[in-house]
Amino acid sequence: MTYRADMMLGPVIVDVAGLSLTDDDKTLLCEPWVGGIIFFTRNYQSVPQLRELVAQVRALRPELLICVDQEGGRVQRFRDEFTIIPPMANIGATYQQNAERGLQLARACGWLMAAELRACGVDISFAPVLDLDDERCAVIANRSFSIDPEIMSVLSEAFIDGMHDANMCATGKHFPGHGAVTGDSHFETPVDARTLDAILTEDVLPYRHLCEQGKLDAVMPAHVVYSAVDKNPAGFSPLWLQDILKKQLQFDGVIFSDDLTMEGAGVIADMAERAHVALAAGCTALLVCNQRPAQLAVVEALKTSSLKPASNLQRLKRPFAWSDLDTLRATEKWKAAHQLLKESVA
Question: Among residues 133, 192, 203, 258, which one is catalytic?
């Protein structure tokens, strides 16, 4: 399929298997319903290889949103030749010892992470994690700044300020909060039985703060059922996404579904139906990863629907400030941020 300039940017985010694009990849990426691509560790070998992969995507469809999970800690897809960002819990610990230093470190890490990706042609990283860690959820754990919502609010704001300084949009996840369950939504559908009031006054507080400050560009809901509130996981729930996130918090940015192939989305068996329900609930972009048949099924279902292949993903595109990683590393700002990080982890 040949890309046409009049194709609209659709809501589906897909992945590819290797270090370069195959003909099948190119066919899928040219579907109007596809609006972006997410890279994983398997897509990275070196900076030159990454830049060539990005160039292949841009040559095919320059407007596609190129994404990655590069939070820091154990969730950092690109490592060799990139600055290793510490777990967010380490930043939280620094803040507890020295608040000013912790805020500086959060902003520096947000900037370093984002700037290095931007210098390689990547649009966004799905960060930061806003889940409060109460030491129950192993899949969150040290990905979280803190269990304290006030600390989470100020550190995530500083981290996002760093991302914005690098001209990268921020995605808060996993709304309204994944930290209070033991289950991993990659492998099951966790259930959080807390009251709505408890969730709103604890887990949602950082989202409320960041929305009030105008700092959140995108949100990713959790594949978690909050049983006292709604029978549906948050990503399939109009109550969570429309009534609470959009109306109460007045969020008007991009809402990414978490990966629809995860077991946490398994309350709906059919993959095409998952896409329809997520869109109807309020998601404006759909992640479908690691299963090409599922990606094709979702695209085909949307093509035969009455919907139009449009999204608000274009709001996350920003101009690139650096032509390559070497140019970025030659700047005084990169040197200063790298030195601060080096001193903080020594």
Answer: 258
